[in-house]
Design brief:
The longest helix is centred in the first third of the chain and has 47 residues. 35% of the residues lie in helices and 17% in strands. The protein is α+β, with helices and mostly antiparallel strands.
Length: 259
C-alpha cells in the first residue's frame, strides 16, 4: 500500500512539474509565433503597398518578395502626381514615357533591409536594377532611397539626409546647363558621405554642405564610396562614369551614363 502511494505521489509530482514547465513554455512559444506572424503581416502590407524607406524582415522578403522587389515599370498616375511640380516641373522637356519607376531592396549599414524607390530613364533601367540586385546580394550598405519629391525636389535637403536618388529636372550646380539627372541618366548614392567637391582659389565648395567632414577621402567611415568599391565596379561594367574619377572636380556620389 505504501509503495502504491509513493508511485501515486511521483505521478502527481510529474503532472505538477509538467504544468509548471510545459504551459509557460507553450505560452511563450505561442506568443513568439503570434509576434512573428504580426511582423510578417506588417511586412506584407509594406511590400504590397511599397512603402519606400520602410524596414522589412528577411522572412518577409522571402515570403512576399517575388519579381516586384526588383522591378521597373512605367510611371503610374499616383507616382506622377508626386513628381508634378517637384522633380517634374511644368517646363520639363523629358517625356513621362521615357522614365521608369524602380522598386528595389537595399541593406543599411546596421544590416537591416529597407524598401527603396527611384525614377530613372528607361534606357538605363535594367542596368540600374542589375546593379542594385548585386549590391543587395552582397549586403552593400545604402542608407535611404526615396523619390526626391519627398523633399520637394530640393537636392540639398535630400542629400543632407543621405538619400540616394536619380531623376530630377534641374541644372548643374551654379550653371544653366541641364544635369544628367534631368534626363534620368544619373544616380547619386549615399550623397551625404560622398559629396560633390570643387576646389578653387576662393576655397572649397561642397554639396551638400553637411558633407564637409567627408571631403577628406583618406578617412574611413560608413557609406564611403571609393575607387575599388563594389558599387563603382558594377556601374563601370555597364558603361557608367563615376564622378570620383573626374579631374577638375569630384562627385563621389555620382554615376552617369552619357551614351
Amino acid at each position: 500500500m505504501q509503495a502504491r502511494q509513493s508511485i501515486g505521489d511521483v505521478s502527481e509530482m510529474a503532472i505538477s512539474l509538467n504544468r509548471i514547465f510545459f504551459f509557460p513554455l507553450f505560452s511563450l512559444c505561442f506568443l513568439a509565433n503570434a509576434q512573428s506572424l504580426e511582423r510578417l503581416l506588417a511586412d506584407e502590407s509594406k511590400i504590397s503597398h511599397w512603402q519606400a524607406a520602410s524596414f522589412v524582415s528577411e522572412e518577409g522578403v522571402q515570403a512576399f518578395c517575388d519579381q516586384q522587389c526588383f522591378s521597373a515599370s512605367p510611371i503610374a498616375d499616383e507616382i506622377f502626381d508626386r513628381m508634378k511640380g517637384n522633380s517634374y516641373p511644368a517646363n520639363c522637356t523629358v517625356s513621362r514615357e521615357k522614365l521608369r519607376y524602380l522598386k528595389v531592396l537595399h541593406y543599411t549599414a546596421d544590416n537591416r533591409i529597407r524598401l527603396g524607390e527611384m525614377v530613372v530613364n528607361q534606357a538605363i533601367s535594367q542596368d540600374v536594377l542589375d546593379v542594385f540586385k548585386i549590391l543587395f546580394k552582397n549586403r552593400y550598405p545604402i542608407e535611404k532611397m526615396v523619390l526626391i519629391d519627398n523633399y520637394g525636389a530640393d537636392d540639398e535637403k535630400s542629400m543632407s539626409e543621405n538619400n540616394s536618388s536619380a531623376f530630377n529636372f534641374r541644372f548643374v550646380q551654379g550653371t544653366r546647363v541641364l544635369s544628367n539627372h534631368s534626363h534620368g541618366m544619373a544616380i547619386d548614392i549615399n550623397p551625404l558621405f560622398n559629396p560633390y567637391v570643387v576646389k578653387t582659389d576662393k576655397g572649397t565648395f561642397v554639396s551638400p554642405k553637411a558633407g564637409m567632414p567627408y571631403v577628406d577621402r583618406e578617412q574611413n567611415f560608413v557609406y564611403k564610396i571609393s575607387a575599388d568599391d563594389l558599387c563603382v565596379q558594377e556601374f563601370k561594367k555597364r558603361g557608367f562614369e563615376w564622378g570620383g574619377d573626374w579631374k577638375t572636380r569630384k562627385d563621389y556620389q555620382h554615376f552617369e551614363k552619357t551614351k
